[in-house]
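Hey, can you fold this?
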Amino acid sequence: MHLMKTGARALLLTLAAALLFACAGCGKKAAQPDEYGLAAEKSKLDGTDIGDDLQLVSTGRYAGLFVEDGSDKTVSDVFCIRVKNTGSSDVQYAHITLARGDERYEFDISTLPAGQTLQALELSAQTMPEKPEELTATVTTYAAFTEPLSMHDDLFTVTTTVTNNSGSDAAQVYVYYKNASGDMLLGGITYRAGVKNLAAGESQSCYTSHFVQGTSKLLFVTYAA
């Protein structure tokens, strides 16, 4: 699997360099600006439990690449939230709405493992409103994975290629991943790379423009015999 491209590396570096996230209360670690320009501003939304074992860690502003629709277009002043999965189940999908009167701000979250935190952008790239602490956050849709996330290491080797060690042919193998910075998952979006008709003992490469070796994080594998 050819998961690393020069263009992808440049894309992620641009994302990191352009991240100007004026954060409303990002917890103890965000007391000082980090390498992405993240600066803490306390808010009563910090640490709010919004349902389904999801915690709204912080709200803020974002400038950089808009990852949520895969376009990676350059944006600025986009409403951004950080959400932590405080439960024991891995989140497959959740839709979060922050609202005040007629105002609506929508966020999608996918593949958020238990105990981890991700940063998501408002889906229509709306600007962060004034006094965001007045917003009410609600989880409007939620689904957990029914089985633990697995790379199926007993069946496949996934590095820069996918190798079928199962002893049987696989009709398809999909690898799911997200971009990350340390323990922070960047973007509500989850990317997928795949190969088809992978014979027993065979290795195949696949192409994706969003994976950067050493920075993107492999999350799980699915397959069909």
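Oh, and this one too while you're at it.
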Amino acid sequence: MGAACGRLFFMVRKGTSMKCTILHEGRGRMRVHVCNVRMTLHRADVLEAYLNHHDAIEKATVYERTGDVVLYYNGKRADAVRALSTYKFDRPELDALVTSADSRKLNQEYQEKMYGLVVGHCFRKLFLPAPIRAAYTIWRSIAFVWKGIRCLLQRIVITMRAGAAEQVVQGIHTIIIDRVREIVHPDGEELKADSSFAVGFLVSGIMGFVMAVGFAREGGEEIDLEQPGDSACAYLRAVAMQTVETVAQVEGVDTSELLERVSKEADAYRASRATSPDVVKDA
């Protein structure tokens, strides 16, 4: 096997000759160096994909930096050599074999960056005094410290907004609970726990509906709140009806009677809003 090292073979296709050298060969394994060809990232990807799709090759790896190819074959050696001898670079029909061309590029960029960092660190360690190295480290860390401060400020703002939103939701929940209690029990009796839970579910549906409308309007989309076919409106109506039915069943009130009370309250609210001087009407 060792006698095969340094052996040359040629691939001649359409007038183009490419020389390859077998650097090392073992049982079912071969390391080949491609000569007279500049191995680019794209060429390495296409060659590796071609060899991995060949029936005679079990696995192939192309190293673009050195121009070497390591392949494992599970058949005859002649079939593996024939797989190499039938290949030619820069054939457009083979580009379709490459599924992803980003991994090799990312690996190379990562390696180059790591090499640069290691060389820079060794250079500063050997040739620069400690005060200058400390000043350089502080200068490089300013950007990362500033990013950390910005991230911390954003988290503080988000936390404050979440706290304010929670207070708003609790206020709305309290208001709706009070109004439902006044409608169901005009005599001042408290609602039962199951009724309060159903009203809380309705409040969650209302807040989700408001958020959906707000996001849609921020994106430039107009939503007709009176359109019966709108999915958000239909969902909110379904939640409201389920809440009314649940409250009526728990509190022992007739559902039609409770719906009539709610309708009267809604009509009174619309009338008060229509006559309010603070309401701005569209022209």
